[in-house]
């Protein structure tokens, strides 16, 4: 099966009204429940954002994209090409049982390293070193917050705190997690052109620091909304698409094929589960650059 420069295998082609103000006991109960649900919905609409640093891959995908309707056993079923199972983890997974994941068939992993210029994953060492020690090829990702610092500043923060790359055949290039803002405006208050510029600055600085082109993790609907279907990164940066369904679906502008696919956020084991679009040797190829 042919592969591209990213090591990606390409498959061949109503309520009733009453006249009397008479309320039964059950009516009182119904009114109470109605008030409860009404107050709950108001609280949900104005709830406090999560604490800074708690964001992770796919957090916005579930909240904003309406994904996750299919049960886990029906996701990730695309049979067109050989695929290699992977996971991604962040601090909310805590200490991960990497040998168990390896035994389940997981061969590669991404670990959240940083967010913005203010947060490093406190479980980073256990997760990053543990995945490597179990035999996995692993990489790190950065959760972008374009409203808090420039792209270049966040790339530097990432590289200096776990996002660097080494040519050891076991380290994947860093990934930029760019998706819905869990702390506020979906597009971080940026125009579409402003978002594209922010992403470009991050990618350029990451390449200048590491010699590698970063992976871009995103969802098609976010990309359309916040970049205006910008197509200029597809020729260089591998795509990691988020879609919890039986296929990756329509890809963002600029990419004709995904390198990785996050197909569920609720697998049978810890972490979000992913498929690399190719056999294990292609994962190695991406690690080697």
TrEMBL record:
Pfam families: Glyco_hydro_25. Residues 1-44 form the signal peptide. It comes from the Bacteria. The keyword Signal applies. The keyword Hydrolase applies. It catalyses: Hydrolysis of (1->4)-beta-linkages between N-acetylmuramic acid and N-acetyl-D-glucosamine residues in a peptidoglycan and between N-acetyl-D-glucosamine residues in chitodextrins. Its EC number is 3.2.1.17. It is an enzyme of class 3 (hydrolase). CDD domains: GH25_CH-type. Keywords: Glycosidase, Hydrolase, Signal. Belongs to the glycosyl hydrolase 25 family. This is Lysozyme. It comes from Streptomyces albipurpureus. The lineage of its organism: Bacteria, Bacillati, Actinomycetota, Actinomycetes, Kitasatosporales.
